[in-house]
Here is the input.
Amino acid sequence: MKFYTEPQRQIPITQEADVLVVGAGPAGICAAISAAKNGARTLLVEQCGCVGGISTAGLMSHWTGNSGSRLYHEILRKSSERNEYSKEWTVQIDPEKLKTLYLDMLQDAGVTLLLYTFVSDVIMENNTLCGVIIENKSGRQALSAKVVIDASGDGDVAAKAGVPYIKGRETDGKMQPATLMFKVGGVDTEHAVFLGSFESTFQTEKGELQALAKKYLPYPAGHVLLYRSTLPGIVTCNMTNCIDIDGTNAADLTRAEQICRSQIEKIVAFLRDYVPGYSSCYCISSASLMGIRETRHFQGVQVLTETDILQARVFENWVVKDAYFNFDVHCMSGAGLDETGMQDKFPQKKGYTIPYGCLVPQTIDGLLLSGRNISGTHLAHSNFRVMPICAGIGEAAGIAAAISVKENCAVRSVDPKKIQQLL
Here is the structure.
């Protein structure tokens, strides 16, 4: 491999913050809002041109799962108020309205926002993270902060800072497949079929829909997941599929984009031919952000396990409560549910808690993990990776960071009881 040595140069420190949040998905947005509301000068950095991550640019269909997060439920309430076709409380997402809602909430909280900005490196002083290097249209710059919250999904900041991690499943490193969401219009929603899980089936004159999808859709696609939207005649499709993808590798992301996009036209044709209510459907939009379910699992002070979830464990140092979902493990070798996954048949209905130690890296100070990159096993991650739970994690991370700044103490020294009081 050939190398190029960059010439040494000075980089301007363009902004100094109390709390710097990297990544503006639900985890990052809630982290930034809660940090700012608790008195911290907060800066939120996002590489896309909009906020919301998978919930907006990723064209996610709905909020799936649940958590006790106040901010998450505030987002749901305000989203429902802006729904022009119904004011009923809904978990369905209108991505365009949600983009604007997020911006309004960030502005109201006093968060400084920087879009179109990529974090390319970190600034370290011994074992402490002190800021990041960014790249954008304005050039290469430095941002300094007392606390950095990594809400990038893949944990790009934590990885560059040297926090130990593994990728994917503990046994073989396999990661869940990637999906590019898309929407179809022209659906007769009054008579249309909606299948919300891999374990959902529907019998037609031509056969059972999941079996037909496996037979006629191009491998590794081969399942039917169709969801209502907030708009009449429009349905969100979670049906493209690409396996053996590493979401931290640009070449893999490019391959996933090519493969998933090549499947959309064939999926639409399948819907027209086989699924009731879709005979006149057509693709109207597709996500601008690839849906990556799993990459790095970081080593935290504590590790959340599948046993903790199944036992509905209540940790004394909890910072997320009433977290609820299932073991949503998509098949690593094709379409459908992995043999380790449980959706409709998930046995634990009570919910669980997440301890503060899962947000605190073992080895690096000045840093908190937020969202799907917190410390947990592969199977536990398949549960807590969903957006309502990530929003709850973000809300807790923002509060913890604000307390750290206010009390001038390390984030790992923040008393979880104080976080609980503010939650």
